[in-house]
Amino acid sequence: MENHVFIGGGGEAYAEKQGLALKYANRHGLIAGATGTGKTVTLQILAEGFSNAGVPVILSDVKGDLSGMAKSGTPEHKLHGPFTERAAKIGFDDFAYHACPVTFWDLFGEQGHPVRTTVAEMGPLLLARLLELTEAQEGILNIAFRLADEDGMPLLDLKDLQALLVWIGENRSALSLRYGNVSPASIGAIQRRLLVLENQGGAKLFGEPALELSDLMRCDAQGRGRVNILAADKLMAAPGLYATFLLWLLSELFEELPEVGDPDKPKLVFFFDEAHLLFDDAPKVLVDKVEQVARLIRSKGVGVYFITQNPADVPEDILGQLGNRIQHALRAFTAKDRKNLRLAAETYRENPRFSTEDAIREVGVGEAVTSMLQKKGVPGIVERTLIRPPSSQLGPITQAERAAFLAASDMAGKYDAVVDRHSAYEILAKRAEQAAAEAAKAEEAAEELPPVQREYTAARRYSGSRVTRSSSRVRRSPDTFGSAMRTAVIKELKGTTGRRIVRGILGSLFKGR
């Protein structure tokens, strides 16, 4: 199918041929279905199709299965043999086994090239979501980001943020007058959350060199789009980190890419597996941000595809933005399951040949109910479809094979070494050193003073008031008329009338400028 990503067909009870029009691929999509019904294979064949069309792809590999896209499938594979028969059945005439141009990435830098961003680029909203902060704690985080911007202190890694929070705690009295109450308890809670994030390995996410989005939007020498696979099997142990990182990546794409309107094909396609993790217990402001990005990012030429077990996992306002849909089987053993099945069926344009609700319940593994956008972006009639077989290997590659791909990658060495440049931590540490040096210098100067003056200076420094000792005698000047007048004037200036006089003088000075 020209200018389409071929999905499947089957004839008879199935659709003749179903394809996703590249022109409407940036209108987003949904892949849903119960566990074991074939969602991962569907994701794989869509990624292959986009790559063959010259569209780069970003996807997360939750189970490790998608690493096989780096290798060609073979008829000898126990699962690939029947695929040749299915290709013939559905009219996939140009089916052939081949590998995809794959680049492996990993937040932990173990199964792929390291992926990093800076604390400043993540921003307070997403970081608060990642740390699960309260409203008061998020407010202090916003103060930290404001101070970093105003004082020119780059927030690059976690130690920068931790050092700045310590400084805020030490200066909370002055800051509270400007920004509102700064509670030591809230600062302590944020620090503990940062410690938990460090223990989960999340500290590796923050730092430099930061990921350049252009490295995710490349094609190979043959013009095929790069398939960027993010290793997420270990990352799933920290679902908040997983969801926040992918949302940050989506937000960065939205902010940095230029407007392109409606291109003939997307500039990039983004697959968000286990999409329910993005919305579970998410605050409304975050869901609103996702909805805004989903609604507007298509004009940047980016298509977003959510993969989840049930369409009900996706908020209704966002679900309405997903025009291309592939629905695998949903199980309906309980009343709640049946309700979700009915709601899922109601989101499709009806086909008079069969019941959509029955079809969603009955389709087997490797089959799906599909609806793709057609001319002028109108949703197509729902069809039962046999999903096409993948051309790349089904199942994971070995660790030795992955290591070989990483060594041969053109990204090898670019992000491997961490760069720790001058930032907030170093700036605040230098200020602390200067303050300590000045205090030491003052102590040394005080030691050289006569005993009486040294005691006087020390008392003023530590108590803020003059302290006298009975053993110390200070000669007083004799009382004279001049000294008496000075004393009277000083007393008057210290009083209410004196303060008015001083304010009047200062006011006239400033008015005269």
Structure description:
Helices cover 43% and strands 11% of the residues. The chain contains 18 helices and twelve strands. A twelve-stranded mixed sheet has the order 2-1-12-11-10-3-9-8-4-7-5-6, sandwiched between helices. It starts with a strand and ends with a helix.
In short:
The chain has 513 residues and is of the alpha/beta class.
Secondary structure category: alpha/beta
Q: What is the distance, rounded to the nearest whole angstrom, between the alpha carbons of the first and last residues? A: 78 Å
Cα Rg: 33 Å
Residues in helix, %? 40-55%
Order of helices and strands: EEEHEHEEHHHHHEHEHHEHEHHEEHHHHH
CATH architecture of the largest domain: 3-Layer(aba) Sandwich
Going by CATH, the homologous superfamily of the largest domain would be: P-loop containing nucleotide triphosphate hydrolases
Which topology of the largest domain does CATH recognise? Answer: Rossmann fold
The backbone outline, from C-alpha atoms, is: elongated
Quick check: average pLDDT? 84
For the record, what CATH class of the largest domain applies? Alpha Beta
Low-confidence stretches: 464-482, 488-513
Indicate how many domains the architecture comprises: 2
Going across the biggest sheet, name each strand in turn: 2-1-12-11-10-3-9-8-4-7-5-6
Strand content: 5-15%
Quickly count the helices: 18
> Main sheet, how many strands, which sense, barrel?
12 strands, mixed
Helices and strands in order:
Blueprint: E1 4-9, E2 17-21, E3 29-32, H1 39-52, E4 57-61, H2 81-89, E5 102-106, E6 113-114, H3 119-131, H4 135-150, H5 158-170, H6 172-179, H7 184-199, E7 227-231, H8 239-256, E8 268-272, H9 276-279, H10 284-296, E9 302-308, H11 316-319, E10 324-327, H12 335-345, H13 356-362, E11 367-371, E12 383-387, H14 399-408, H15 424-447, H16 451-463, H17 481-494, H18 496-511
Parallel strand pairs: 3-9, 3-10, 4-7, 4-8, 5-6, 5-7, 8-9
Antiparallel strand pairs: 1-2, 1-12, 10-11, 11-12
Helix pairs in contact: 3-4, 3-8, 4-7, 5-7, 5-15, 12-13, 17-18
